[in-house]
Amino acid sequence: MPQAGDWNEELEKEFKAIIRKYFDDKINFALENDNPLEVGNRLAELLKSSEEDIVEIITPRAVKKWASPETLPLWEVFLENKQMILELREIGKSIANSMRPLAGNNFAIWVSKVLNGAFQEEALPLIAVTSGEIKQSLNRTFNKYSNENQGFKPDIDIVVANTLTLKPLAIISAKTTLAERVMQTISWHSYLQTLPPEIRDIKLLLVTAWETFSTGSANRERVQRLDGVYVCNLEVQEWGKIKIFSKILNDLQALL
């Protein structure tokens, strides 16, 4: 098997900083040039348009990480070599493994930035957070119940809270695709309904990028059990609790 190449912890930190800056710049540019909710409606498109750029960023990292010093100079010239094919397998795995969480993790950050932009424009006392004390406190509360029920696994990507009271009003599960454990989110919603009022009154919402919920799709019916489903894709087929992303603002405002 190929050995790790010229890569170290410092280079990994630099790589993560570059990725973080790319996604920050991408969403900030979009927000500077359009209404936040319109940006939210097109997050799927924004993610798709990022793919080629991301591949260009992560491929050199994968090569440096997995190609041996002996074969590294040859990668730009010729790939027909058994050893290089073995290395290419590791490079491919590294690229794939990097792409999946990058899209998922940054999607939640984008959604929170879009929401906060909309809250600011409308002067609403709301905040969307992906980290920090509000989320940590909520996690601690859920962990107490999780210890009592081992099958309970919180699915918290974003917390929307009242800025005046810091009370959580909604939990958002942000998923680029519904292959990402959507049934876990639905099961969790059912479990929340069995908890004390201060917990079960918190709404559980789903925000997704790629799913359009076409007529006849199984998920179109399933997600109706959630408190709200919002799609960052103009191709969405709205029905029941399934709505285009921009409609989330009125629903969140109604929780105040």
Describe, in plain words, how this protein is organized in 3D.
The protein is α/β, with parallel strands linked by helices and 256 residues long. It folds into two domains: 9-109, no CATH class; 126-253. 54% of the residues lie in helices and 12% in strands. The protein is built from nine helices and six strands, in the order H-H-H-H-E-H-E-E-H-H-E-H-E-E-H. Strands 1-2-3-4-5-6 form a six-stranded mixed sheet, with helices on both faces. The radius of gyration is 21 Å and the shape is elongated.
Map the helices and strands.
Layout: H1 9-33, H2 36-41, H3 43-66, H4 82-121, E1 126-129, H5 133-148, E2 158-162, E3 168-175, H6 182-192, H7 197-200, E4 203-208, H8 218-222, E5 228-231, E6 242-244, H9 248-253
Parallel strand pairs: 3-4, 4-5, 5-6
Antiparallel strand pairs: 1-2, 2-3
Helix pairs in contact: 1-3, 1-4, 3-4
What structural class do you assign from the helix and strand content?
A: alpha/beta
Radius of gyration computed on alpha carbons: 21 Å
Q: Into which percent range does the helicity of residues fall?
A: 40-55%
Number of strand segments: 6
Distance between the termini: 58 Å
The shape, in one word, is elongated
Index terms:
2 domains, 6-stranded mixed sheet, 9 helices, 6 strands, 12% strand, elongated
